[in-house]
Amino acid sequence: MQHLLPLLTTLLPVLYGLSAAGYARVYIAEPGVLEGTRGQSGGPILLRAAVVVHILYLAARGLTEGHLPLASVYDFLSATGFSLAVVYLYVEMRVRIRTTGIFVIPLVFLLQIVSSAYGAALAIKPPIKPIWFELHTLAAVLGYSAFVVSAIYGILFLVLYRDIKANRVSFFYGRMPSLETLGRANMSAAGAGLVLLALAIVMGMGWARVTDVAFLSDPKTWLTIFAWAILAFAVLAYHRLGWRGPRAVYASLAGFTTLVLSRFAVDLFFHSFHTFR
């Protein structure tokens, strides 16, 4: 499998770049022009191909190194790009919209091109027991990526909401789905993030038992649980309390902002075993 790594490392950014171009074509085209044509499906097909190649890449690295590539900064960038692509495809299949891919897939391309350019020759052994490290980290990366996608849809919702309130028919307005669809996409991604981050926390507890790490005394753990609770309330309010519109979106963005700020707070003000440099 090792001889395939240079090819896969080069192929990944190419496929993600072509996929981003496909989604850009759908977004730029006049509404309805590509409806039902191959031009509309080019981006999703290429993105699925990129995800399959990415899985092969992760498997090849895993077989070669004895663990999934999740320890270095560049491995983390690649895993984040992969997670964003997977979460986006999940949301796209649920809400059946393709004009929003341009706001997610170029980010995946940038993350992967940096990883492929600078991280190919760098292999770092995980600092902890591989199986727990891999399960915990992979679930966490997927969860955080789901919240990033949720936040992107939340921002798109608010921009479109502003245009509608201002009675402004902009280029952006003409290419976005309805507010209801964007709201569902926002909450679909947030719901996936809740499940994945909960799994990461459970895996972290398993990791703590194996390695004797004080997982529950780490400030990052409690700040993450706090942010998770805010996002859980936002999703619960959407599904059970009838929250719709900006109120639900603002609640999800508040949880995402708390999650991001907690990360910076831990790095700047606290000691945490979650800080890898």
Give the structure's gist in a few sentences.
The protein is mainly α.
Task: Give the helices and strands, then pairings.
Blueprint: H1 5-28, H2 38-65, H3 73-95, H4 105-118, H5 130-165, H6 171-175, H7 179-211, H8 219-240, H9 246-269
Tag the structure with descriptive keywords.
75% helix, 277 residues, single chain, mainly alpha
Verbal overview:
- Helix 1 runs antiparallel to helix 2 (38-65), helix 5 (130-165) crosses helix 9 and helix 8 packs antiparallel against helix 9.
- The longest helix has 36 residues, at 130-165.
- The protein folds into 2 domains: 1-124; 126-277, no CATH class.
- The protein contains 9 helices and no strands.
- It is mainly α and 277 residues long.
- The mean pLDDT is 83.
- The chain has helices spanning 5-28, 38-65, 73-95, 105-118, 130-165, 171-175, 179-211, 219-240, 246-269.
The proportion of residues forming helix, as a percent range, comes to over 70%
Oligomeric category: single chain
State the end-to-end CA separation.
29 Å
The tally of strands reads: 0
Write down the secondary-structure element order: HHHHHHHHH
Query: How much strand?
Result: under 5%
- Overall outline: flat
Low-confidence stretches: none
Q: How many helices in DSSP terms?
A: 9
Give the radius of gyration: 19 Å
Q: What structural class should be given to the helix and strand makeup?
A: mainly alpha
Number of domains: 2
- What profile does the largest beta sheet have? none
Mean pLDDT: 83
